[in-house]
Amino acid sequence: MFLSVFDMFKVGIGPSSSHTMGPMVAAARFLDLMRASPFAFHGLRASLHGSLAFTGVGHATDRATILGLAGFVPDTYDREKADLALEEIKAKRTIHPDGLGTLSFDPATDLIFDFDTILEGHANGMILMATDAQGDVTLRETYYSIGGGFVMTEAELAAGKDTEEGAPVPFPFKTAAQMLEMSTASGRSIAEMKRSNESARGGVENLKTGTRRLWQVMNDCIDRGLTSEGVLPGGLSVKRRAKGIHDKLMQERGMNLTPPHTINDWMSVYAMAVNEENAAGGQVVTAPTNGAAGVLPATLRYYLDHVPGASESHVEDFLLTAAAIGGLVKYNASISGAEAGCQAEVGSAAAMAAAGLCAVMGGTPQQVENAAEIALEHHLGMTCDPVKGLVQVPCIERNGLGAIKAVSAASLALRGDGTHLVPLDACIETMRQTGADMSEKYKETSLGGLAVNVPNC
Predict the structure, then answer these.
(1) Angle at CA 414, nearest 5°, toward 315 and 298?
(2) What is the pLDDT of residues 62-102, one digit of tens each?
(3) Strand partners, 153
(4) pLDDT the model gives residue 162
(5) In whole angstroms, what is the distance from residue 445 CA to residue 148 CA?
(6) What is the pLDDT of residue 163?
(7) Residue 164: CB partners within 8 Å, gap ≥ 6?
(8) What angle do CA 99, 17, 116 make, to 5 degrees?
(9) Distance between CA atoms of 371 and 37, rounded to whole angstroms?
(10) Intervals of the chain under pLDDT 70
(11) How far is residue 356's CA from residue 349's CA, in Å, rounded to a whole number?
(12) Are 54 and 446 in contact (CB under 8 A)?
């Protein structure tokens, strides 16, 4: 099994990897399908299903789908150009994707939120259609946004998880047990094995350049969040808090009266900065999702800014180790809140961050696996119940607490020798089973939990 670090960490836009980035990616794929088709097309239609319908407006799924059909993609997204394009599409009721001419598309009638039809493949389903001059559908494809910006067609999903293209990799571990066995046999760390796998597919220089960019985007996102003020969009009137907290922390620095637990506020504020940027539709990196995008950058920033002896030369090892753990979770369970609740998002992010931190602080592969297990275990059962379908409450603070848990898990693992009762594989399987048993009300539908118990929402 191979899942690249650049699959796990993708540069994109907020507020949701599965509800914003995924539909935009699906639309781009559908445009490519249209370009390869022998048919002449006159118009476009789209229908959103399941969680994409229930919380689509709050997650800007409608906006992302329309802009995706217009040719916008997450990696190069320009907010100003997108706003202008959206205004023109709504006014003229036409869309102009490159190479396909002018197509009819009225957002008011051609984009449907289907609350009644749940597609069988995944909770995040959408159908994209192209029509002829008579309005008949001549091309149609079903897409599933399966979390973290990953998108699969109906056929791809049916083919199963083992479908994989590309050169073989030297360390194709599919479970944590296999990962540790290969590490022991080869004498390599998890990061070193992951680096060998990445190099077999993309080359060493691509890896170095790509991971540097990933951390730069993550770090820039933190910095923007720490300096931005105002009210987040969506109607909840949630005020940005990261700047105010950070300003107070900076004022208190060096004061003898500052209690030791204040370090938790630093971890939290870094994470909250990212998720406030995400909620505002800013540029973030899936880690492994947008809703959980603050946990890992916050943990890495904590390491660099607050741990004696920390070095940016360790950033690549941190990201590679985290990606290895994230790949195991995704392959054997889920990183989608719509599929398994927030345990699959913030829980997975905390496991990844704990593993990365443990590794760069000198942990053995056994201690790294232990750190990931501790972090994930103590998120089991966590629901995804965003108020008003927005990635704001409880998501922003939840990322801060996820970072604190990640650091605590790494610290506990480093205090031991790597032996522990519950294997990471068992914890991942428990998360999968818990997600399968969880009521749909608590899986990113905003039909239960805080989403229905907070007044005036």
Answers:
(1) 40
(2) 999 999 999 999 989 998 999 999 999 999 999 999 999 99
(3) 143
(4) 46
(5) 17
(6) 46
(7) 1, 2
(8) 85
(9) 49
(10) 161-165, 456-457
(11) 11
(12) yes
Q: Give the domains, in start order, of the chain with CATH numbers.
A: 15-159 (3.30.1330.90), 176-453 (1.10.4100)
pTM, 2 dp? 0.92
Q: Residue 286: CB partners within 8 Å, gap ≥ 6?
A: 8, 9, 10, 12, 17, 21, 148, 149, 293
CB 395 within 8 A of CB 274: no
Note the pLDDT of residue 304: 98
* Beta bridge pairs of residue 129: 45, 140
Q: Torsion angle, CA of 412/415/420/423, rounded to 10 degrees?
A: 50
> What is the maximum alpha-carbon separation in the chain?
76
User: Tokens 């040719």 sit at which residue?
Assistant: 71
356-382: per-residue pLDDT in tens? 999 999 999 999 999 999 999 999 999
DSSP assignment of 353-401 equals HHHHHHHHTT--HHHHHHHHHHHHHTTTT--B--GGG-S-TTHHHHHHH
Is 130 in contact with 139 (CB distance < 8 Å)?
yes
Tokens 């070193």: give the residue: 192
What residues have CB less than 8 Å from 308, skipping those under 6 apart?
Answer: none
- Give me 156's structure tokens: 């791809």
Cα four-point dihedral sign 297, 343, 126, 237:
negative
- In angstroms, the CA 223 to CA 34 distance is 40
Tokens of 446: 């905003």
Phi, psi of 200 (to 5 degrees): -65, -25
